[in-house]
Each structure stands twice: as C-alpha cells, then as structure tokens.
Amino acid sequence: MEFSELIKTATVESVLLAGTGLPAVRGTLCITSHHLLLSSCPGGDGQPGTVELWLLIRNVDAVEKRVQNLGWYQPPRTNGSPRDTRLAGSSGTITLRCKDLKVLQLEIPGMEECLNIASSIEALSSVDSVMMMYPFFYRPQDLRLEEGWHLFPLEQYFQKIAAQTNQWRLSDLNRDFTTCPTYPAGVIVPAAVSDDTLRRAARFRQGGRFPVLSYYHPRNGTVMLRSSQPLTGPNRKRCPEDEVLLGTVLDEGERGFIIDTRSAQAAKQARMTGGGTEPKSSYPQWKRLHRPLERGRPLQESFIKLVEACNDASLSMDRWLSRLESCRWLSHVKAALSTACLAAQCLDREEASVLVHGAEGTDTTLLVTALAQVILDPGCRTMVGFQGLLEREWIEAGHPFHLRCARSAYSHARLKQEAPLFLLFLDCVWQLSRQFPFSLEFGESLLLALFDNAYASDYGTFLCNNEKERCLCKVKENTHSLWAWLNQPEEKKKYLNPLYSHNPLVIWPSVEPQSIQLWQGLFFRWIRPSQYLEEARAEMQRLVEAKEAPAKESAGSRLSRSLSDPAARTENER
C-alpha cells in the first residue's frame, strides 16, 4: 500500500483553523502520509505571522464533516458552447476530534476539497499496520535508534532481589515465546521450581500466563505475583505443577491471598466456559478475595460519557453533578485504588504474599500490581523508577496497547477491544500525587505525556500488544524509544516535580469518595485556558531553583576553598 493512494487532495489554500482557546488562523493546509499541517504567512490584514498546526494523523479519533452549498448559476455561453450549471460557491467544515481529547475545526473553501480532505484523514488515521505507523519513519537528529531501549533490563531488577534472597531465579524458558506468547523472554520464578514444571503450569493458565514475580517487598520478604485465571472448567480440573508452583512461594504455616479482579459471580460463570478459580482444597494456604474491577466495554463507555459531559458547556450545576455520577469514572478510580491498597496492605501489614489475577491477566491485573508498587516502593515514585515500572509491569508484561488504545473517547466506530485501562492507572497515580504532593519526583505533565503517547506517538515504546509482536516487527531496531526523549536533560526538566522530597515510607491514600477528584488537568486540558496554571508552575520552579542555587554555590565554595587551602582541607577531613 502506498500512502499517496489514500490522499485525494494534498493541499488546500485559505483554510481557517479554529479550536477552543486558540486564535483562529487562516493558511495553507497540507496532508502528508502521517501529518496534517497548516501554515499561515504574515498578511496585511492584521493576522499574526507564521503559525503551524503539526498534527499526527494517528491522533485523530473521529472526523465529522458539514458541507454548505451557496447556490447554483449558469455561466454565459461562448462560441456556441453548451450551457452548463455550476456551483456559485460552497464550503465545508471538518471537525477533528483527537485521541488526546483536543477538538479542532477546519473551514475549507470548496465542497469537493472538503470531502476529499475528510476522506483522506479518515483513511490515513485508520491504517492499522504497525510497520506503517510514524515511529518507523521518525528520525530526530539528537537521538540514536538504540538509545533508551535497554535502560530497564529485567536482569537489573532481578539483581536487586538476588542481593536480598536466593529463593528466586531469572528464567529464560520463554525466550522463543512458545510457553506464553504475551510474556517477555525472561521471567522471575521460584528457584526451587524447574522450567519443565513451569511449562506444565502454563498449560493450566489462560494464555499460558503462569504465576510470575511482580514485586519483592524488601522489608519482610513477601512477594506479589501475577498470572491469568486457572483453567479449572466445569469439571474442576487440577494441575499438580500449578499447585506446586504456588505452594513453593509460601513456607509451611504461612498464608497468602489471591486477589481476583472479577466478581465471585463472574468467576463462577468463567468456570462454565473453561476458566475458573483456585479451589481451596487444592490451594489450602491461599485465601481468595474478590475485588471486581471493570474492563472492556463498560470502562470505555464510562470514559466516553465523562468526556461528553466535560465538553457540554450548557450544563447546570445539578445536571453536571448528575452526569459526573452516572458516568461512574470516579467510581472506577476509587475501586482501582482500593484494590491496590488491599494488595499493598497484605504485603506490608499482614506480611502475606499475594497473587493477583483476573481472567486474561493483561488488564486489571497489571493495573493493581503497578499501582500497589507505587504505593509501597519509593523507588517507583522517582522519574526513572516510574519509567522502569511502566516498562516492566505494562509494556513487557503484555498489556495490549495496540488493541486497548486503538480508539479514544470520540470514535464513532463500533467498540471492539478498546478500554482505557492505562488511562485509569495514570488517573490513579495523579490522585496519589495530589494527596502526596512531595512524594513523587515527577509531575502531572509526565502523566499527560504518557497518555498522549499511549494513543498516538512519534516513538515505538507503546507499539504492539506484547514483546513477541515487538520482536516480529523489529520495533527496537527501527523506532526511537520514548524514554530516550523524556530523559534528555532539557526535556526531563519539564516533567519534574519541583516540590519533590524523597519519602521512604509507604504512602497510604485515602479512598473515601470525598478524596477522589476529577483529573481536570486531563479532562479539561483543551476546554479552559491553562495559561495561569503554567505561569504558576513556572514561578514555582523558579523559586525552587533560586533556593537551591545558594546551597550549590556554598558547597562549591567550600570545595574550592578546601582544594586551595591545606588547613581548610585538613579541617574538612576531620
């Protein structure tokens, strides 16, 4: 397929661009294989100088068009030519609703041009082939292709665990992705369990997702595992290898908790179709707790309803509160935080190991295990540690980003497998940052950047559904890593929290309804001007830097004095 086949009209003059909170701009609209560009030249009518729209077409979620005919006329015949009828004038308006929730309007002169532009954008935004997406073509001058892809190797994470205990090992039994197509090549498993036992246990779990280590709690040695549901089925099948695997995790007399992210009724229904739960008779040391979390269509519809309510400026206070409640988004946030707190509490306060799973183990399971680690581990609350957590618990763990983030809140397409699980996770992290403003090294701007890049990106980090697909598409060889861009010194500064102070403690959030707030920085980002918030943020950053400068200068002066003055050096050594 050639991109040129999808572009019916490449350039249109005198297009008017408008958007909420943006000045209207008239200029030339161009469509390329991956971008929509609008540039305006300085004019004599008081318009501003060159302004550009640089929109990644993959970011377009829905295209709405409205065409206006302004009448017909018959031009005079010349030299006996037949009389014809033409449009006296026509124009059209295209509304672009983007995956990052931005809404843009293009007023295009000419009905044919308007329809062609709309058709081209729809076709280009619907290209589903991963290797035709922009990250495979993007080549920034200041980044190398290999940069950022190997910042968080699982071996490095395992070495931290191995320094504290010898009860776990790093297994490469999945190096060819045959044991589990959605797991990475390497997984951390109990040292006493052989690879052959793991393979047999994998056949007893949906999609081959046998229990693997997600987190080791250094304070007391308890662990958090994740997996998919067991395939017990209506006949209550057993798997001795799976029982041995989970039994090995606990010492004699210890207990563990299985947190099932489905309701008891849903788990029971799953058993009738081949799935199920771990029966107490086969797993006597494990106690099952059901904490239902929505996924799939109900969560996507909740997201859609919330965005619709946020965009409706005509709502009265009563109507707004009613729609906010009926969409149930904040209830989903509360439920996710509550379940993550339960997992953290089992590990930290009950000193009991935990296994988390739902059905497939690629959605709500990862939501809970990742959130619990942010609550428990101060390392996951740093900029680099949080990136490592995302790499380990979302990307390598097999969350299907390509399926879940195919459409956002505006799409008119019939829902398939879209679901904003990753957005729900980011919202929960934002709730933590609001309740503990000094404890996270990164700020809201990083969470917004991650949301944007999960749905449409210049980088390959969130492409595909699992590591096997990334290997087949050679993502790491042919695209740039998002982490390489975020960690550039000048770029990184934008995402740091100027109020950050290392907090070694567990952060226990309040999950009372009064404590859960709407993430206005995301859902109202394009609806109301953020100029004053940005100015306040910049001023706060300036004050923090001004406060740090004398301390750095003082330390530098002491060092300089000690190097030049032997007496001072002797005093410092003392």
Automatic annotation (TrEMBL):
Range of residues in the leader sequence: none
UniProt-listed InterPro entries: Myotubularin (IPR030564), Myotubularin-like_Pase_dom (IPR010569), PH-like_dom_sf (IPR011993), Prot-tyrosine_phosphatase-like (IPR029021)
Domain Myotubularin phosphatase: 148-523
One of the record's GO cellular component terms: cytoplasm
Ranges for region Disordered: 547-574
Residue runs in coiled coils: none
Transmembrane segments: none
UniProt superkingdom: Eukaryota
Pfam families according to UniProt: Myotub-related
An annotated GO BP: phosphatidylinositol dephosphorylation
GO molecular function: protein phosphatase binding
Recorded family membership: Belongs to the protein-tyrosine phosphatase family. Non-receptor class myotubularin subfamily.
Protein name stated in the entry: Myotubularin phosphatase domain-containing protein
Source organism per UniProt: Cairina moschata (Muscovy duck)
